[in-house]
């Protein structure tokens, strides 16, 4: 019996040690995840504060030169323009913290046929958007980038070309596959020049396999982009929220436009499309559509 008692005590000690180690690892993992989340939250707060401060500067208030230096990836180049739902002060809406207006949820998709039929627009696509998202590959994170939930028409409308691997297919979208496309900046930030195709990344805690790298042929400002099937958006974010739209512009037939003329043409078209969308927004709604620079 004495021997059995010693064995029992040893087993209890081993089990207690294993349990303690498990709790220690769990606490470390939880602390790591909370640190990630807090870091993204602070990024968002800092970016919002910088954008508001910058807006006051443009109006002649506050100190000059305010801003965070954090850029999001909404600029798709000179051949396309994006129109997105915005708050009354003109800042992009973050539907993780802002109330979702039900009337705006289906609006972008419903208006696409009419938008695509306009003379100055060659193609149009609706997409979900989340800025300053929590995207990681191991310990490497995407700083100041955006996650977009896209459909099969997005790449053509936004002017992206697949440079490596493949794009998101209709089957990826229909079958809600966790496949992801990166742009060049996201690929560099997360993989430091290594081939990302076939590798796995974390988008807000959900695992996605990188199937390709797609980018614009022209330089642009903004952070890296991660593109996922719009059908998987409910698994990562909220199910129903308003979409933005991206429009591929048709160059006027007369003469080729110089850069300044392109900018004016983009601004004019973006304002025109925002006005079309806003004509369908119920009276009294605080969130409206606005062309993004």
Percentage of residues in DSSP E strands: 15-25%
Could you report the average pLDDT, rounded to the nearest whole number? 80
What coarse outline follows from CA principal-axis ratios? elongated
The succession of helices and strands, N to C, reads HEHEEEEHEHEHEEEHEHE
Output the structural class: alpha+beta
- Main sheet characteristics: 12 strands, mixed
Helix content: 25-40%
| Count of individual helical segments | 7
**What's the total count of β strands?**
12
Uncertain spans, ≥5 residues at pLDDT below 50? 43-70
* Number of domains as seen in the coordinates: 2
The end-to-end span amounts to: 81 Å
Could you explain the architecture of this structure?
By secondary structure, the protein is an alpha+beta fold. The protein has 2 domains: 69 residues, no CATH class; 213 residues, no CATH class. Strands 1, 2, 3, 4, 5, 6, 7, 8, 9, 10, 11 and 12 form a 12-stranded mixed β-sheet that branches. The longest helix has 57 residues. The protein is elongated. About 10% of the residues have low confidence.
What is the topological layout?
Layout: H1 2-58, E1 80-86, H2 107-116, E2 121-131, E3 135-137, E4 140-141, E5 146-150, H3 154-158, E6 161-165, H4 170-174, E7 179-182, H5 184-191, E8 200-203, E9 206-215, E10 225-229, H6 233-236, E11 244-249, H7 259-278, E12 288-292
Parallel strand pairs: 5-10, 7-9
Antiparallel strand pairs: 1-11, 1-12, 2-5, 2-11, 3-4, 3-8, 6-9, 7-10, 8-9
Summarize the structure.
With 293 residues, the protein is an alpha+beta fold.
């Amino acid at each position: 019996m004495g021997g059995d008692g010693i064995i029992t005590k040893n087993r209890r000690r081993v089990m207690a040690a294993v349990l303690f180690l498990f709790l220690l690892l769990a606490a470390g993992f939880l602390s790591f995840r909370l640190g990630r989340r807090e870091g993204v939250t602070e990024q968002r707060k800092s970016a919002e504060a910088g954008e508001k401060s910058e807006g006051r500067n443009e109006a002649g208030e506050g100190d000059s030169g305010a801003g965070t230096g954090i850029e999001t990836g909404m600029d798709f180049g000179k051949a396309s323009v994006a129109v997105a739902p915005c708050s009354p002060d003109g800042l992009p809406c973050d539907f993780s913290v802002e109330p979702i207006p039900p009337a705006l949820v289906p609006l972008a998709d419903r208006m696409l046929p009419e938008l695509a039929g306009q003379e100055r627009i060659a193609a149009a696509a609706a997409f979900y958007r989340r800025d300053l998202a929590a995207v990681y590959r191991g310990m490497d994170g995407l700083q100041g980038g955006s996650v977009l939930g896209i459909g099969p028409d997005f790449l053509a409308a936004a002017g992206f070309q697949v440079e490596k691997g493949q794009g998101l297919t209709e089957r990826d979208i229909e079958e809600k596959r966790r496949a992801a496309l990166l742009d060049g900046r996201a690929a560099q930030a997360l993989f430091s020049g290594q081939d990302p195709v076939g590798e796995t990344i974390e988008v807000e805690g959900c695992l996605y396999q990188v199937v390709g790298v797609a980018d614009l042929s022209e330089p642009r400002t903004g952070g890296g982009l991660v593109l996922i099937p719009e059908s998987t958006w409910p698994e990562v974010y909220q199910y129903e929220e308003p979409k933005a739209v991206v429009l591929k512009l048709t160059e006027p037939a007369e003469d080729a436009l110089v850069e300044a003329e392109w900018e004016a043409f983009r601004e004019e078209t973006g304002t025109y499309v925002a006005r079309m969308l806003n004509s369908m927004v119920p009276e009294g709604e605080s969130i409206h559509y606005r062309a993004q620079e």
